[in-house]
Write a structure and sequence with these properties.
The protein is α/β, with parallel strands linked by helices and about 325 residues long. It has helices at about 1-5, 10-20, 35-55, 60-70, 80-85, 100-110, 125-140, 165-185, 185-195, 225-235, 260-270, 290-305, and strands spanning about 20-25, 30-35, 90, 95, 115-120, 145-150, 200, 215-220, 240-245, 275-280. The strands form three sheets. The protein has a six-stranded parallel β-sheet with strand order 7-6-8-9-5-10, sandwiched between helices.
Length: about 325
């Protein structure tokens, strides 16, 4: 019961605040009274908690709120199945989906050769893709990981930045390095990068290559042109998989250049082995207020009749 209700009933209070019900706990019995619709939802919430605990999952405020959101949203998927999935284990830390959309995303990666993940910042598009790449490498399903993204923001100004070429492009690749450090020991990561098992490079470096037995992640794909997207996708070799992530509301291409991420939806729809996953503000897993901010901007953009008039990062 302590695991179910939390220290000092802290988890129980979160449930009570989310529903218009009264919850009474006596010994190992939980009694819920209130409107029928809400009491049935609360009972489902506790059923999902028990399933998670039975699977060895430790409940916390984040997982409790996520379970409540899924139950109140009347999602078909079981919160226990969503939160109980695992993308990667590292030193006892589990990287897991936290929303039905993220669970759908992981399943798409497992079942398809090329997956496109489109959604706003904070939805875990890149982080989960990289976790799946590291897991595939550890399972020896692939021989190397290639992480790439366009350095569009630099444009013609790249030559004016100080330092060597790698120092110039480092700010655009730094988020990928940061995620890798969360998933691997520093010594192991350094060794794998020195051997070329893990490669982090600008998109331009992919031209003319054929990438076999690789897990490839293209990040910030909204900043590719249609030609660059075609170039990237045709690099795919035997035994390889690719995940393409981006947010079509954050296009930084020069005026008049159409995003390759927008074009590819029309070009590749319906091809077997290619999947498109769309994440929304409901899939934001940063601080709870970030989810509310993203949803507020989505409503604003819809009211203005634009597809992302204000960018985010």
């Amino acid at each position: 019961m302590l695991s179910l209700l939390g220290t000092g009933d802290s988890l129980l209070r979160i449930v009570e605040q989310a529903f218009n019900v009264e919850i009474l706990v006596r010994g190992n019995q939980v009694t819920v009274s209130g409107p029928e619709t809400e009491t049935s939802q609360v009972l489902r919430v506790f059923d999902e908690f028990v399933k998670l605990l039975d699977r060895g999952y430790e409940l916390d405020e984040s997982s409790v709120r996520a379970t409540i959101d899924m139950v109140q949203g009347d999602h078909e998927s079981s919160p226990a199945d969503v939160l109980g999935d695992t993308a990667l284990r590292h030193r006892g830390r589990l990287i897991r989906p936290k929303t039905p959309g993220q669970k759908t995303y992981l399943d798409a990666i497992r079942q398809n050769t090329v997956v496109f993940a489109i959604g706003p910042a904070g939805t875990g598009k890149t982080y989960l893709a990289m976790a799946m790449a590291v897991e595939a490498l550890q399972r020896k399903e692939v021989n190397r990981i290639i992480l790439t993204r366009p350095a569009v923001e630099a444009g013609e100004r790249l030559g004016f930045l100080p330092g060597t070429l790698y120092e110039k492009i480092d700010p655009y690749l730094r988020p990928l390095f940061d995620a890798l450090h969360d998933m691997m020991d520093a010594e192991q990561l350094t060794l794998l990068m020195e051997r070329g098992t893990i490669e982090v490079a600008p998109l331009a470096y992919m031209r003319g290559r054929t990438l076999n037995d690789s897990f490839i992640v293209l990040d910030e794909a909204q900043n590719t042109t249609a030609e660059q997207m075609k170039m990237f996708l045709t690099r795919l070799g035997f035994g390889s998989r690719a995940v393409v992530t981006g947010d079509i509301t954050q296009v930084d291409l020069p005026s008049g250049r159409r995003s390759g991420l927008r074009v590819v939806r029309d070009v590749l729809s319906g091809i077997e082995g290619v999947a498109f996953t769309h994440l929304t503000g409901r899939d934001v897993v940063r601080h709870r207020i970030v989810q509310q901010i993203v949803e507020a901007y989505e409503r604003y953009d819809q009211a203005e009749g634009t597809e992302g008039g204000i960018r985010q990062s």
